[in-house]
Amino acid sequence: MHILSPQLSKEHSLPLYVQLYEQIKHDIINKSLPVGSKLPSIRDLSKHLRISRNTVETAYQQLLAEGYITSRPKSGMYVKELELDVLQQETKPFPYQHTKNTPILDGPEIDFEYGSIDMNAFPMKLWKKYSNQAYKQEMEEAKSYGHHKGENHLRREIARYLYHARGVRCSAEQIIITSGTQHSLNLLCETVFKNCDQFAIENPGYDRARYIFENHRFMVTPISLDEDGLCTDDLRNSNAKIVYVTPSHQYPCGMVMPFKRRLELLQWAGETNGYIIEDDYDGEFRYEGRPIPALKELDQHDKIIYLGTFSKMLLPSLRISYIVLPPRLLQSYSAAFEAYIPTVPRVIQNTLYYFMRDGEWDRHVRRMRLLYQKKHSVLVNALTKHLEEAAEIVGEKAGLHLLIKVNSQLGEQALIEMAAAAGVRVYSIEKYRIQQSTDGKPLLLLGFSKMPIDQIEDGIKRLKEAWFA
Ligand SMILES: Cc1ncc(COP(=O)(O)O)c(C=O)c1O
């Protein structure tokens, strides 16, 4: 692999990514970088040159688009044999290239990524301690796989937590431990819903849930949202009997479903003899008023299948989530799955059990709530201070992400690329929409759970510079 050492300068009138692109292109044309040579990975080069990954990525993308390099899946970028037309072509302009106002940055990349957690807050020491205990126990009990629904004592702890924290009344019997929310949905599709043909989902909504329904060849009916979340009138007009919803903090748009809409939804389920799948993925994080209990709290007629996860509070890579089934569905679940082996390793289940049993989980939840509350308020304050009228904040009352509706004539993609050129990553919600949106201002998603608190304001200032300077 060729280590590139281009001379980049912040004083130059061209942005760093254009300088980098020009120099690599120059090296390819004069064969200092011979055909077939491998370029350093984006990560390595950004480290080596101490510039952001976006800078390298944007330069590589341009070289790819112009045919100087090629990308080999799972291998990397390689210098291509140049065709005559590549050599003769004029350099295409970089999209949204700014030479005057865009700040030339080589500081840290600021990534408003959604879905990751603040690893500094993960209780590593305690987790290791309980994990050691769990391994010791495993050595004694390794001869069995464990219960197909998951470890009994862990399910009891989860039931206790759900009652105190989310207002959900259920027994350990009703809980099934799974390897993630998609796994939960998969199990439901294979068991209690195997004879159904149609699912209603929120639009925009959680794409990973939609894939599961589609892969099971169910008809998927998108239901629109209003400011209260899923429109129950539209749901009534569909023929669906099952709906997947995120009432505590609609994903991705962020509404918290108010009480009245919750009752309407339950009424729909009663009248149609239908079921509601409630995905309460980040309901623990609430920033205004008292925590809102789960929709399941109101479920007097056992119409709700509740989905929970440890990914947001603890660690996504643990792959541990759960289903709470209404008692009347337990039999059909067990009939299909009694002979199955649990998928979450017992060691992980038992580590989590010890963690919960000793009160560490409750302490951890309190700490995480405080931490994310702080990050949330720094982000909201920075948006209010720096983007004022330029962006409206949407869906900020709960969860680990919010959206901004940007007062700009540009499209979402253009804004994302301009932000990237300024070293900031913000995200589109396009992939969550079933139909392309035609209305209104660009809407962008900003996650804040992983973001170091002291980078938040800098990130928002850079967005202002990139979009409005
Ligand atoms: C809407 C929604 N549901 C559930 C999850 C969690 O999924 P899992 O339990 O598979 O980690 C996420 C994670 O980002 C999510 O966005």
From TrEMBL:
Keywords per UniProt: Aminotransferase, DNA-binding, Pyridoxal phosphate, Transcription, Transcription regulation, Transferase
Residue ranges annotated for the HTH gntR-type domain, each copy included: 14-82
One example GO MF annotation: transaminase activity
Entries under SUPFAM superfamilies matching the protein: PLP-dependent transferases, Winged helix' DNA-binding domain
Keyword Transcription regulation carried by entry: yes
Keyword Metal-binding attached: no
Record Pfam families: Aminotran_1_2 (PF00155), GntR (PF00392)
Bilayer-spanning residue ranges: none
Cofactor: pyridoxal 5'-phosphate
Database matches in PANTHER family: HTH-TYPE TRANSCRIPTIONAL REGULATORY PROTEIN GABR
Family of this protein: In the C-terminal section; belongs to the class-I pyridoxal-phosphate-dependent aminotransferase family.
Protein name from the UniProt record: PLP-dependent aminotransferase family protein
